[in-house]
Amino acid sequence: MASISTTSTATLFSSLLSKPSFSLFRTLPRITCCFPSTSSSSSSSLQFNISFAPPKPKPTQSPLPRHQPQLQENNDDDCDEFDGPRQLFIPWIVRGEDGNLKLQTHPPARFIHAIAHAKTHERKKKKKNNANIGGAKSVKLSKAARRFYNDNFRDPPERLSKVLAAAGVASRRGSEELIFEGRVTVNGSVCNTPQTRVDPASDIIYVNGRRLPKKLPPKVYLALNKPKGYICSSGEKEFKSVISLFDDYIKSWDTINPGLPRPRLFTVGRLDVATTGLIIVTNDGEFAQEISHPSSKLPKEYIATIDGAVSRRHLIAISEGTVIEGIHCTPDLVELLPRQPDKPRPCLRVVVHEGRNHEVRELVKNAGLEIYSLKRVRIGGFRIPSDLGFGKHVELKQSDLESIGWKN
User: Fold this and answer.
1) Distance between CA 279 and CA 234 in Å, rounded?
2) Three-state DSSP class for 160?
3) Which CATH superfamily is domain 221-404 in?
4) In the 3-class helix/strand/coil scheme, how is 121-139 assigned residue by residue?
5) Given the residues 83, 155, 272, 307, the one annotated as active site
6) Tens digit of pLDDT for each residue in 305-360?
7) Phi-psi region at 82: left, alpha or beta (left = phi > 0; alpha = psi -120 to 50)
8) What is the pLDDT of residues 45-103, one digit of tens each?
9) Contact in structure between 26 and 86 (CB atoms under 8 Å)
């Protein structure tokens, strides 16, 4: 195995440490390498005297260009006569075909061949596991970006009573009663104020010891063809509520919408027990408030079947209106429909926008007529489908909601 003499190594390091401003391009002393001879007949070692190329000489009267340096013979004794950068040549000690070591100025052929055919690979970047539960890559946003999202896209905190009603706990009034009774806690503390602003996604809300789900049910809008004998509230026990007509719909909710809480449905406005026709069922309290409030002036069309004859005097009396709940109400339109072969009784088409309690019945009664049956067929621009049977419902599309008058 090749080894460099200890004396030469010590001389080399002492010369390097004695010059603090040492540079790789300064002239290095001669190095003597000793190798054991490969010949078995001789015990002597093989020596190589390694020296380095001389530096470029000082410029003479006609210096050469920088790209054409002038070199002189290798003479270590004349190193002080030169100035400027030195060239450093590293010799190659290789073993020849005869098995002996030799000194050469260029690398061996097998080394050049290995470099030429070496395969280079790009360093693979470590992939960070940015996938969240949903499988999408999570992006770390700045505080400004999160603040912008919360201010413009995230739902703002809502009143506690409204959140409970939207989650299907109880009606708005029933939720307020639960809050007043101290049966609702927010973040571990009992809350007695229905107006408290909460966010179900971040606040921990318990009702009667059961935690409110973080996700609220989606908004549901359904159009029902109400049959006779059903009421729009659950106060009276002798009549069935129209909400009972959606029992099958609620039972199939978990299958259609897995992981989402069931909605609490209620009617938008009311129809009395004897009135049939179109009524909207939803779980959106804001939608119900805007559509059913008299200030919306949403037109509603009714078909009233009259028991008896209808004259022009009756039509004029209905169009003049009457006082209902202290307010004088007048219809938008009163029209006597042509007689139908299958309907022996006359029918009136009445359009109102006040939405007062029993408004159409009071208008007809004030004219001296008696209603045999009453059916609502239109709210706003949405008309009940002709093929929708009693007790059946259909889901409202976005275009249907816009025709009704909902702009949100």
Assistant:
1) 16
2) helix
3) Pseudouridine synthase (3.30.2350.10)
4) CCCCCCCCCCECCCCCECC
5) 272
6) 999 999 999 999 999 999 988 889 899 999 999 988 888 899 999 999 887 888 99
7) beta
8) 566 565 555 555 555 555 545 444 444 444 444 444 444 555 556 677 878 777 788 87
9) yes
If one counts every other C-beta atom within 10 angstroms of the C-beta of residue 308, the result is 12
232/217 Cα distance (integer angstroms)? 22
Give the CATH number of domain 158-211; options: 3.10.290.10, 3.30.499.10, 2.70.98.10, 3.40.30.10: 3.10.290.10
Rounded distance between C-alpha atoms, residue 25 and residue 282, angstroms:
88
Instruction: Quote the CA–CA distance of 39 and 80 in Å, as a whole number.
Output: 41
Q: Answer yes or no: are the C-beta atoms of 33 and 93 closer than 8 Å.
A: yes
Compute the distance between CA of residue 102 and CA of residue 95 in angstroms, rounded to an integer: 6
**φ, ψ for residue 135 (rounded to 5)?**
95, -10
Q: Where in the chain are all domains bearing CATH 3.10.290.10?
A: 158-211
- Give catalytic status of residue 77 as yes or no: no
Residues 6+ apart with CB under 8 A from 340: 347
What is the DSSP pairing of strand 205-207 with strand 210-211?
Answer: antiparallel
How many Å separate Cα 124 from the centre of its chain? Answer: 30
Nearest residue to 266 via CA among 298, 224, 237: 224
Closest CA to 88 of 163, 45, 5, 28: 28
